[in-house]
């Protein structure tokens, strides 16, 4: 889903230039083994990367009048934290494709992908050195929260008994937390801690709405930049799947059968997805998306009329439209 647009026309060009400079820094190039940077660049520079998180940082930063250079630093940190999480997730999920190219673990090894992700986290934190220390502290807290939520996701996948509460906790700790940080960190950087909580809630709600939409698109077999039916195939916690399993014994039995079999066929996955759609889970997902987006806009408040703020409101409207169209097609 490519939704966000730049607050200023040249932001993405400046961001790409800064990201390239960061990951091609001679300080890193001079250190071996080079393969860790190769894997990091492989993912970070992929042409299919949407740059949603950097764009949101730019929007929130513009809304609170954060200087452009600091918006760029936070935006780069957000993208690198996200990229690191993807490198780690692909190892856990045994993914083979990401951003229309082989995953780092598929092209190299699991070890390269994991350690490459660790290196990206370190480089991400370096971006924040010139900002108030409180910004770095929140970034460290964010990484810890995302790590704990990723471990909870691993446990849920192994147990294959997750429910809506499990999904909510995992989505909050991963997607919601990172988009929340995209909202709060610019406010913290300009020393407005009370505003930071409001903008964190806005970003968090946008993140949950985005995650539910992504879950629905995966279930519908739409292009999401990862393996088709990845959630069904790998028992990944998913909002519509969890909801359908809670309402339908047939869906629960069908998904249990798939997860008990290595290498489920595409036909079996398609049949399971159809049963989940028939359960009414897509309609319920749409209502939850609407709720999260409404709360996000309430949290944004009058900032929706400020530079950057109206881009966030437009992003929410686009996400609402994608979700509505998907529901109508189901």
Top CATH class: Mainly Alpha
Classify the fold: give the CATH topology: Farnesyl Diphosphate Synthase
Report the radius of gyration as a whole number of Å: 19 Å
Known CATH architecture: Orthogonal Bundle
Order of helices and strands: HHHHHEEHHHHHHHHHHH
Q: What is the spatial order of strands in the main beta sheet?
A: 1-2
Q: Terminal Cα separation, in Å?
A: 18 Å
Broad structural category: mainly alpha
Runs in which pLDDT lies below 50 for 5 or more consecutive residues are none
* CATH homology superfamily name: Farnesyl Diphosphate Synthase
Structural overview:
By secondary structure, this protein is mainly α. It has one domain: Orthogonal Bundle (Farnesyl Diphosphate Synthase). Helices cover 74% and strands 1% of the residues. The chain has a two-stranded antiparallel sheet with strand order 1-2. The longest helix has 27 residues. The chain is globular and about 55 Å long.
